[in-house]
Amino acid sequence: MKKVIIYSRIAVLDDIEGLNPLNRQEEELIAHCRANNYQIIGAYREIYSGSTIERPEWSKIKSYIKNTPGEIDTVLSTDFNRIARSQFLLMNEIEVFKGFGVEIQTTLEIGQLDYSEILKYCPIIEEE
Questions:
Q1: I need a labelling partner for 42 at 20 to 30 A (CA). Which of 24, 67, 97, 114 fits?
Q2: CATH number where 114 lies
Q3: Can you list the pairs that 11-14 forms with residues at least 24 positions away whose Cβ atoms lie under 8 Å?
Q4: 127 in a domain, yes or no?
């Protein structure tokens, strides 16, 4: 059984007509885990811009993975842009997590992670 951490992120809380996007993301992630027989080890959610990787909950995930080697197989999110809004930051995080033996996957993903998929879901943002 794959052991996962689920991660939900939005930049601003925009609770329109009671449809909280953080709740929607988390519900989708839980349903995906149930359908695929994944064991959820932890659930993290935050309201923070994806233009930076230095986010409180994301940092907690990295710290947990670093301090518990082999405990987690995958960090699962609904979309790559929930991890980072820039391709550079996303690719860097994927490599960092690979170093810990952990994959970053999304519920949109089918098969192996491929750079062309990242290009579709995560725009190029110039670093200043």
A1: 114
A2: 3.40.50.1390
A3: 11/47, 11/48, 11/49, 11/50, 12/47, 13/47
A4: no
How many domains are there within the chain? 1
Residues 6+ apart with CB under 8 A from 43: 5, 6, 7, 8, 26, 29
The β-bridge partners of 7 are 44
82-120 pLDDT, tens digit per residue, is 999 888 899 899 999 999 999 999 998 554 455 555 556
